[in-house]
Amino acid sequence: MNLIENIREGLRSVRANLLRSTITAMIVMLGITALVGVLTAVDGIEHSIMQSLSSLGANTFDISSKTNRGGSSDGRAEKAYPEIRMTEAFKFMDEFRSSSAISLSAWATRIAEVKRLSKKTNPNVTVMGTNDEYYAVKNLEFEQGRAFSSLEVRTGAPVAILGYKIYKALYDAGTGEQVTGTYVTFKGTQFRVIGLLKEKGGFSDPSSNFDNMVFISIVKANQLAGDRVLNYNLTVAVRDKSQMEYAMGEATGMMRQIRGDRVGEENSFELERSEALDELGDLTAIAQVFGFIVGAVTLLGASIALMNIMLVSVTERTREIGVRKALGATPLRIKQQFVIEAIVVCMLGGIAGVILGIVLGNLASKLLGNDAFIIPWLWVFVGFVVCVLVGLGSGYYPARKASKLDPIESLRFE
Hints:
By secondary structure, the protein is an alpha+beta fold. It has two domains: 3-52 and 279-412, no CATH class; 60-273, no CATH class. The chain contains 13 helices and 14 strands. The chain has helices at 3-16, 18-55, 86-95, 134-137, 150-155, 164-170, 218-225, 244-259, 276-316, 318-326, 331-367, 377-403, 407-412, and strands at 60-65, 72-73, 76-77, 100-112, 115-116, 119-120, 125-130, 142-145, 159-162, 183-186, 189-197, 213-217, 233-238, 269-273. Strands 1, 4, 7, 8, 9, 10, 11, 12, 13 and 14 form a ten-stranded mixed beta sheet that branches. It has a two-stranded antiparallel sheet with strand order 2-3. Strands 5-6 form a two-stranded antiparallel sheet. Helix 1 packs across helix 11, helix 3 packs across helix 8 and helix 9 (276-316) packs parallel to helix 12. The model has no long low-confidence stretch (mean pLDDT 80). This is ABC transporter permease. One of its GO terms (molecular function) is transmembrane transporter activity.
């Protein structure tokens, strides 16, 4: 009796004892469903959170001027470094080669009063200078119009993009009045409006209250500042989060070169990344361990039940084992038959458990805000491996017991 025949015999035995095999497979199915379902939900929730964190800068790092301005620490004067200049920022953007998008921004003022025709806003509007990639990096969407072109940024064209609160103050928002092609005035300069951002809402911090902002090109903001030096901020959004450390290292080396920092000296600029990804990774790991423990406990119960059923099967089929041995089946083949039968039952339950786990896991993650359908191929593979191991572990002792039966005594068994 070869291996293929043993597999066929295992399937025949499953069909012959359909109710017992179905109940055993369902026990295994529950364990695999718990394992795959929880881990699918975790992956789905992680995917949803990653999308949300991406819009908040979780896959970005910032380069800005050092905040120290010649203070003292432990009785020693700290060195003051010059602000990052706009020419240095543009040079960095032109030469940085990693796969990323780079935004450049600076506050022109936070107390502007914006006017249009006979209407005007309160004198608390933030005017921010940006480049053309700022809106994609910050995940800002347009209600009307478009973002700046690269040419408009580099030439300092007098064009502007409005936040939604500014739109409601200066336009008839109820009728959906178009902003493109209209003009607004602030800081003594007239600007042609080319875009309107969608309402974000929910922000009390002025630095993130995009609804109460007017955006102009970074070059134009520099012109409006006159002799005042703007505090430029570069934000690098890395497309592949696994390349974050490499991109940060490359950015540090390039900015040091642009700034003329000498070997052995500290950086003359600040480079910081969001810690959200690291915290998310820790939470995900904890959730995955929890899911694995839940599945493991359920599978432990399934393996005990399966071993019990296989021992009963050995007792019920003692005469059958005697006949097989009398016809020349070796102890190895007898052992293979019972182990394969246990694995077949586990695999049937495992297949059903994987499918049910994926469905339930995606339903759970959808209820928590994830719209993407997740198939965790790693955990599917792990689930099948676990099924084989459970079948092997549960079926080995009964199979070993069956292989050691004396054929003559087995034939006498009633």
